[in-house]
Amino acid sequence: TTDSGNNWYTISSGSFETIDFPDINTGFSVSGSSILRTTNSGTNWIEVFYDTHLFNPYTYFLNNSTGFVCGSNNSAVLLKTTNGGSQWFSANVGGYNDRLRGIFFLNDFTGFIASGYGVALKTTDQGFNWTIQTISYNYNFNSIYFNNIDTGFIVGATNYFAGTPYARIFK
Question: What gap in Å lies between CA 114 and CA 136, rounded to an integer?
Answer without folding.
Answer: 14
